[in-house]
Amino acid sequence: MFGFFKKTLFLLSLIVVGYCIYTMFFESKYDIRSFLMKEWAQNDKLDSFCTDLSKMSSEWDTIYHYSGDFPASEINKRHGTDFENLHIGCRIVYKLRGVTVAQESYETVCSGIIPTISFYRCDENWCIDRNNAKFSVKKYGEEFYLRRDTCR
Questions:
Q1: Is the backbone peptide bond immediately before 115 cis, with ω within 30 degrees of 0?
Q2: Confidence grade of residue 29 (pLDDT, cut at 50, 70, 90)
Q3: Type and span of the H or E element at 24
Q4: What is the pLDDT of residue 140?
Q5: CA 132 to CA 52: how far, in whole Å?
Q6: 58-72 b/e with 16+ CB inside 10 Å = b?
Q7: What pTM, to 2 d.p., does this model score?
Q8: Nearest Cα residue to 91 out of 46, 126, 53
Q9: Which residue of 51, 72, 106, 141 sits 20 to 30 Å from the alpha carbon of 41, by its own alpha carbon?
């Protein structure tokens, strides 16, 4: 019985180490939250800072943002994505020369599922290009709030 426990503990340790290595070296270059965590650390962990999403290491020329109320089926039809019709805070589509290269979604802030990000914008949907991707960022706990019109 003790041998089984040792083997199980060893296997669980391998899984944890493997996951840590994967997240360190193979995390998505299209993950805005990971990018913001690095920017936050570089800004002395201040709760307010400006960032430029064009500094992300991923290849894109346009990011489309859709609020959670915008139908996933319509986004999928427009961009060839595969978002599900779940209640989500926002959906983000990355394009390069008109071709969708990545997609991601974030929970609503009030869902209780954190960490998350939230874009401040009143429009239903909007896009940014790499030449105009500056945002002011506020960090509250594990949540990042991005506002486009206050960072130049």
A1: yes
A2: confident
A3: helix 2-26
A4: 87
A5: 8
A6: bebeebbbbbbebeb
A7: 0.74
A8: 126
A9: 106
